[in-house]
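Tokens in:
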């Protein structure tokens, strides 16, 4: 299949809308990451998403809408959901609600709930409005790769597998949406993202955090969100996170890098902008300013992809405090590192 990469124009969006209505796959920009879309009520089309991504069939998809009336055929909406939609839609919040029968099982991986979101990216909204269909769309990467935050990332992963990629520039947030479940007794964050726990609690009161956000699942523990089971967001090299006092972390990164190179590895560090100069001999990858977790979120996945392009096999990274957007950063970075963490003081 020939994959077209087109800038977002009225013509390309009309083509994309037509392809989606015909049951084809189209990748498109959102404010979180690029999505790989298919008509959500067309089971055959949705199966195509799993095939193109190599995604395990037990990992359900998020259904994207542009108008709340589309939810009527998809899920049971409750008061808490409406308050969240009023506060955060359109935007990077996915809400899990009891599903309706019209949603194909392949979308929900046979769960009795469905994930719904209204994105805020103008190109995503224009496309959803042009086709006027609910669109199931996971991140547009091959399964196990970092999510794409630029059209070129999608092309690198999906060339030959899908018909069309709409280019809308770099994703703003850079991490996938916050996922909150309203299907249990108490609202629970299954995946942290740009909409933080504090922002949610300001609107609906106390919310729980799923246990496995900053650690691997324990043996026998059931993932509340199936996506959390998988080794996600991974570069090909081995990532180790270095925590501790700032100057010790910088020194530890330098020593670990020198040691790894001495052992013959292609080694590099992921560090804050403030430390790039001090680590200039350690192949530094700038992940953004240390007090700006949103900037780190925005750059993280593109950085992980660069590491693969450069065939790095050993990577040492700084960390951000796991608060606010930092919690979402550490959830993704932790999983990229399989939660391998070392305290700098132990190295020095
Ligand atoms: P992605 O679209 O690639 O960002 O992945 C969607 C995320 O939402 C995955 O982590 C899924 O496991 C999660 N998800 C989707 N639907 C549900 C659902 N019904 N219940 C729990 N988690 C869900
Ligand atoms: Mg994904």
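Residues out:
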């Amino acid at each position: 299949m020939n994959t077209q990469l087109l800038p977002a124009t009225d013509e390309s969006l009309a083509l994309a809308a037509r392809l989606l209505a015909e049951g084809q796959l189209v990748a498109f920009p959102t404010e979180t990451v690029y999505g790989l879309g298919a008509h959500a009520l067309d089971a055959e089309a949705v199966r195509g998403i799993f095939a193109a991504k190599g995604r395990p069939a037990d990992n359900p998809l998020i259904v994207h809408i542009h108008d709340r009336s589309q939810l009527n055929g998809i899920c049971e909406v409750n008061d808490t959901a409406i308050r969240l939609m009023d506060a955060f839609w359109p935007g990077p919040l996915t809400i899990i609600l009891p599903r309706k029968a019209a949603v194909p099982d392949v979308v929900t991986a046979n769960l009795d709930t469905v994930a719904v979101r209204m994105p805020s990216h103008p190109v995503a909204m224009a496309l959803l409005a042009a086709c006027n269909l609910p669109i199931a769309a996971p991140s547009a990467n091959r399964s196990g790769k970092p999510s794409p935050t630029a059209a070129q990332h999608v092309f690198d992963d999906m060339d030959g597998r899908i018909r069309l990629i709409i280019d809308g520039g770099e994703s703003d947030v850079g991490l996938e949406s916050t996922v909150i479940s309203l299907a249990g007794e108490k609202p629970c964050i299954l995946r942290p993202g740009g909409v933080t726990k504090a922002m949610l609690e300001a609107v609906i009161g106390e919310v729980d955090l799923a246990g496995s956000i900053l650690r691997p699942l324990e043996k026998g523990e059931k993932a509340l969100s199936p996506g959390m089971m998988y080794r996600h967001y991974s570069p090909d090299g081995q990532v180790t996170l270095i925590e501790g006092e700032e100057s010790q972390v910088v020194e530890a990164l330098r020593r670990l890098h020198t040691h790894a190179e001495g052992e013959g590895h292609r080694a590099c560090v992921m560090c804050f902008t403030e430390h790039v100069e001090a680590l200039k001999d350690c192949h530094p990858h700038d992940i953004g300013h240390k007090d700006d977790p949103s900037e780190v979120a925005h750059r993280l996945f593109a950085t992980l992809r660069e590491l693969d392009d450069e065939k790095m096999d050993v990577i040492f990274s700084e960390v951000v405090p796991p608060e606010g957007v930092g919690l979402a950063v550490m959830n993704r970075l932790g999983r990229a590192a399989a939660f391998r963490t070392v305290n700098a003081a132990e190295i020095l």
